[in-house]
Structures are given as structure tokens and as C-alpha cells.
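BUG: 3D viewer hangs when loading the predicted structure for this chain

Environment: internal workstation, default settings.
Expected: structure renders.
Actual: progress bar stalls at 90%.

Input used:
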Amino acid sequence: MALGFLLGWLAAVRLCKRTGQNADALSSLLTWLMLAAVVGARTAYVLEHWSTEFARQPFSVLRVDQGGLMFYGGLIAAAFVLVVYTRVYRQHLFQVTDLVLAVVPLGHALGRIGCFMHGCCYGKITDSWIGVCFPRESPAWWEQVSAIPPLLERTALKSLPVIPTQLIEAAANALLFALLATLYPSRHRSRGFITGCYLIGYALLRFTIEYLRGDPRMAVGPLSISQTISIGLLGLGLFCLAYAKRQQTTQTP
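C-alpha cells produced before the viewer hung:
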């Protein structure tokens, strides 16, 4: 995740230079965004898993090193910081979000690789060639051992093979970053366009990936909480594209 923040910052600086923008203020902004993202991601995860993981050991909330972050929680917290930042420094909200969201998929891709290394956010059990077995004591192993009835014996050295949803999402985020970074130099003046493309692209990606996930998640009716949030982000993304198109039409002589 730390590597993701670093490379995201470097990519944002590069995009600023390519478009003639001042990148000096990026460091402080991205520092605040990083802190907000971690706090928001941890808070969302704790709220979703309080009864199963934290109720008996509340101090384990602080053990971020043991995993347990929810991306959408971090995105919402970072969005709040962005709104405050643009208000304080009197910048157009979409001017800032277009730049930040153009590089977020790069950091997110590396974050998902971290998820794979930790073993969280795993997929459903599969017998296909893409299945991955996680080692003893991993989240997938624990879930399968604790299932009723158990899917694994406690003596098992590895989990049953599961879909590597972390790597699938990492690859999809890398492609999304490549698309947005390519579009940004020519479309950064269409305020809201890159923001809309990111929100729509990631919302569709996450909504689909959720059907492959096998780890326990909060449900909202027939959907997971992440799918519900994705629907909201899809609508927000469409609004951003409509705003960008309207602004472009207004500015055209």
C-alpha cells in the first residue's frame, strides 16, 4: 500500500508536468489523502466486521498490520478531505479530483497485490486452473475451517483453491490507470470528465468482482455493501460526465 501511494504520487507529478500544472502542492495534499484513506478504510472494515472480529478484542482495531481495510471506506474519507482542501484553497473540485483519480487505480492495483500477499479479499472456491491455495492460518483457511459444516480439517496445511480476485482486480485497476493516464493530458480541461470515467469504470469493475468474492461481507438485500456503493458511484460518475459535457458546450464559441 505504501508503494502504491508513492507511485501514485510520482504518476501525479508526471501528469502535472505533462500538462503544465504546478505540482508543488501535491505532496501535502496526497499526505492528507493517504492518512484519510487509511483511517477511513480501517473504520469501514471495523464497522462491517465488529461483531465477528473486534467485539471481544476492541484494541485489535489498532492492528492495521494484521490487515483489514475496506477500499470504499478509504475512498469516502479521502473524498471528504478533498472537498475541504478545495474549499480552503479555493480550487475547483473537479480540477483536483480529475488529477487524483487518474492515478488512484495505480495505487489501488498495488494495494490489491498486498491483499493477495496477506490472503484477504479472496474469491470463491474453485476447481479451475486459476485457483490459488493460501497457507495455514490465512483468512481463507480460517473461513473454510470455521464453516458449518467445516470445509477443511484443522490439520490442513493450506486452504482449498479459491479464485484470486485480488490479482484480477489488480490487473483491471492497472488497465484503468493506463486508460485514464492516457486520456488525462488531452481531457484535463474538461473538468469532471476523468472523475466520471474513473467512477463509472471502477463501479462496474467492483460490482462484477463482488460476484467472485468468497470472503464474508455485509449484505444489503441481494447485493453486497460494495455493490450497493458501486451503484451510487455509477450514478455520480454519469453526473460528472454530463457536467463535463455541459461545461464544454458552454465554453465552445
